[in-house]
Amino acid sequence: MESSLLWYLKEFVRGEWLTKFFTVKTAPLITPPYFRGFPTLTHQECTHCLACMMICPAPNAIEVLKTEGVWNPVIYPGHCVRCGFCVEACPEDVLAAGVLLETQKAEHTSFSATFHLTINPNTCKRCGNCATVCPVNKEIDPYLGGTGTPSSDEVIMRIINGEMRVIHNEKCTGCKTCEKGCPNHAIKVARVVQGVQEVNGV
Amino acid sequence: MKKIVDVSLPIGPVHPVFKEPCRIKCEMRGEQVLSAELELGYVKKGIERIMVGRPWQEVMFLAERVCGICSVVHNYVCIEGMERISDIEVPDRAAYLRVILNEMDRIQSHLLANYSYCYTIEHETLAMYLINLRETTMDALEMITGARVTCSYIIPGGVRFDLTPEKEKTLRGMLDHIDSELTRFVNMFKGGPMIALRSKNIGNFTREEAIESHAVGPTARASNLNNDCRLFHPTYKKLGFESILLDDGDNYARIMLRFLEIFQSTELIRSCLAQMEPGIIRGGGIIGGGTSKWSGEAPRGELTYDISTDIRGRIKTIGIRTPSIMNIEACVHYMLKGVDSSADVTSTYISSDPCIACNER
Amino acid sequence: MKALQDLKNAVRSRSIHVCYVNVGSCNGCDIEILACLAPRYDIEQYGIYVHNNPREADILLITGGFSPQWEDKLKRVWDEIPEPKAAIAIGNCPISGCVFNRDGTYLDPPVRKHIPIAAEVPGCPPRPTEILEAILSLAPVVFKDYERREE
Which end of chain B is more exposed for a tag (fewer CB within 10 A), N or C? Predict the structure, then answer.
């Protein structure tokens, strides 16, 4: 019992404790510089490549919108999880979050993404919706037919001989519009991402 | 034999000592607990169902949000499990950085658990000291990763950020601070007669009971049952890891074990920093199709991810087994039985470090 | 009468009792609220007291994206809080469902549908300072001249 009392006395009559008790209680609450925070714009030119949207893990957190003739990403704070993936994925350094962009520059790290389309032939009913809604297809062939049978062979996918075929997989930007447009969930887009680091400029 | 029950005492779902909603229904004779039953299901989110059909960059965030307290280890085990599917090599430096982060996370989780216990036995002084020390740990996490809780640091083939020499120096300072402060608090915990009165010989949990109830983590190790998954981890093997065991199996032993593990974690981080060599932190690598099962040691015990992916690395099926479910059952069915007062029910429950969000996902 | 009202306003904004309810979060926001208790942030120096009892609370902090179990229970907790009261949504989950708002989820966000929310703190999870600022800036506004508004 005595030892415990002594212990408590020793605990409380410390110089540190006394100064803290009588002077200002907490240090000013500042956000440390290495905190990521919500991504902000750096006013570099956005090329509308949508890499940020494609890697974002949270639903509806980021959108690339055209305001006054300029494309720019818009972050929605109620949805954004502040992971900073969009900052790392952006090839043009349009976004910044805390010191993340500088760190990325110093360490030469980035994400590289490829997109792969797969069509399940058993559930596909050859309606051509995917070919019609695809924004890349629309740019290549503005006169897309309602049945998804464009004349051009430069499109990502089209109906050939009554069958939906993926012709140019490499043109896919992974936006998943076709997935949403498909009535049977037959078409799937795989976003394959890997984290890479350049070593000595390679 | 007919059981005579005087009082049926429900605790929860909203209760001052519970950080998360759950309900304990105790059958009591006077103040003595005869038996207890646990009711869960208040925070079921269906994370495993959401994960299906998603690639790693989305699954990683969902895995992190299985549990907010030990988010790093979920990220760690999930990603290591996926790496094993397609044999992705991790650079040495990244492997050490992962261990550093995991141990940092363990320190903050153990400090939080001990804070909760001290708060529950109404020793607020020690509780406040501990949670203030936890802020130092959170600073270290934030310094390395850029976020306090959901760090999203570990990715397939490496980690996201490097540990620069300046940061390493600050980290060493923080570790020294944690060690010196915690020595003081542990002495305080050992020396307080009231703490011993509220903790020793309460919530007894023998080794046999631990084996029977499949308890894991510190709860089992305080009953001298060694089932630490870090013993089988390649990076921890390099560091020469050995687990700490205690014999008593009461509340005091469980809290003490966590304190000892914090000291062990700081030592592990120091040896990581000593062994680490400069190099790349991201090796790249694409996840393909296959199945794997991988376990890691979360702050609360063994955490298992059972993953199978399709050819493009999207999740086909996933099963997560979190440590708390065994520990909570062990607590409710073995520790709570025979506890002498209803005040000890909550403290015993907290001493097993339950995590409801992990359990229900 | 005005002096009395001023006194009430001053006291109310200096003495805020907080209750928090987890309606399906991952714990991240809960421990950030707990971190506010730490002497580093010291929520109690502003007169905010966290004790998790709805019957004594002025402000209800809600974390999580509303799981079906809370359908009746959250309303009950909300009704138990005496007037004047306000609810703050902490984190992304009660605002939008965060990463859980997808196919296969059991959650039913936003919480706005179920009880009135006075303020929202975005972030996954928000920093303790952000939570602190939200409570401090909301309290004087919500509780100001409460009796006069009632008339």
Answer: N
Q: How confident is the model at residue A3 (pLDDT cuts 50, 70, 90)?
A: confident
Report pLDDT for B1. 47
Does residue C75 lie within any of the structural domains? yes
Inter-chain touch A29–C129, beta carbons under 8 Å: yes
- Please give the tally of structural domains in chain C: 1
Cβ atoms of B32 and B339 within 8 Å: the answer is yes
Lowest mean pLDDT among A102-106, A197-201, B279-283, C78-82: A197-201
Bridge pairing between strands C86-90 and C119-121: parallel
CB contact under 8 Å between C127 and A35, yes or no, is: yes
Instruction: Give the B-side interface with A, CB within 8 Å.
Output: 53, 55-58, 60-61, 125, 139, 142-143, 146-148, 150, 152, 155-158, 160-162, 188, 191-193, 280-287, 312-314
Supply A23's token pair.
């002077």
Residue pair C96/C49 in contact by the 8 Å Cβ criterion:
no
| ipTM greater than cut 0.90 | no
Instruction: Supply the range of the domain harboring residue C136.
Output: 15-145
Q: Look up the CATH number of the domain holding residue B158.
A: 1.10.645.10
| Side-by-side strand order, sheet with B290-298 | B290-298, B301-309, B315-321
The pLDDT of residue A150: 59
Q: Indicate the number of domains in chain B.
A: 1
Contact residues, chain C, for B46 at CB < 8 Å: 100, 104-107
Residue B235 sits in which domain range? 48-335
- A116-190: CATH topology is Alpha-Beta Plaits (3.30.70)
- Domain A40-107 class in CATH: alpha beta
- Count each helix (H run) and each strand (E run) in chain A, helices first: 8, 8
